[in-house]
Amino acid sequence: HGVTCPKCGGVFPLLASGPRTHRGRLVGYRGDKTGCGATVIGHGTTGAV
Strand ranges (DSSP E) for the chain? Predict the structure, then answer.
């Protein structure tokens, strides 16, 4: 997974945690962290960090 951080301006790995998976891979969700330390917040269908 890779996410764009609007604060840092870079693309960072999504550090998915928890039990949610899709086709055997962890799925990121609200509250998970990114490689730059940001917390993922849910917003509509596109999400935001």
Answer: 2-4, 11-15, 21-22, 25-26, 33-34
